[in-house]
């Protein structure tokens, strides 16, 4: 073998090795993304963590952040297996998860505004890219000063995705990834909500648990019927009670008189669902 042939052989081997490494890395990255590891995991309940390095640039007139500065991050304590006791449970985000206002205001004006080149006089909303109701963290990678219209349309998207996850129509990881990528297209990507322009079909889910302390059943209701819609729970033995939904379509009905094993039917506006006490 000549010297030229030897050099060519070595170069060919090097190129092959580089290609194999590249393919392997790409495969690993794809596997990680598919497994839901694309978003940074940060456990930081009740406090803002991290900082922003470098210059950041808004997208879509301030309604979307710079993905290099604000790619989104999640709280690892929230998993698909425990959504019923975390993000699908009423009152999950407050007060133990949301940081106090002095911390968020300090981060907004002292860190986020300088990074994004935002004048101190501008009015913005310090927003969680992946919301707390979808397991988002309070880390700097998940916070940015958003320029939203009033009312903020992202709030409805967050509620719709939370309901879809809690209703079992979308996995937690898919919802987190979709809203982190672009909240304005998340519903369309996940094929939920009103992105197609049609009316939303009314829906609800219900679950019940016995409260020994109060001698009643707590009937937990999630729905897409928000803002004071009356929800009525009626047990098969005739016991009934009602309450009104909050802004996210959630309510908790205290049902006295139901017996163990009774079927509890719930109506929320035009939606109906049931559970067993």
Report the C-alpha radius of gyration, rounded. 24 Å
Roughly what percent helix? 25-40%
Helices and strands: which structural class?
A: alpha+beta
Largest sheet: 4 strands, antiparallel
- Percent strand equals 15-25%
Q: Helix and strand string, N-terminal first?
A: HEEHEEHHHEEEEEEE
Whole-number count of domains: 2
**What separation lies between the terminal Cα atoms?**
83 Å
Mean pLDDT: 84
Number of helices: 5
Q: For the largest beta sheet, what order do the strands appear in spatially?
A: 8-7-10-11
General shape: elongated
Oligomeric state of the chains in view: single chain
Strand runs, count: 11
Low-pLDDT stretches are 3-8, 10-37, 195-199
Features:
three-stranded antiparallel beta sheet; elongated; 277 residues; disordered N terminus; 20% strand; single chain; 11 strands; alpha+beta; 2 domains; Immunoglobulin-like; four-stranded antiparallel beta sheet
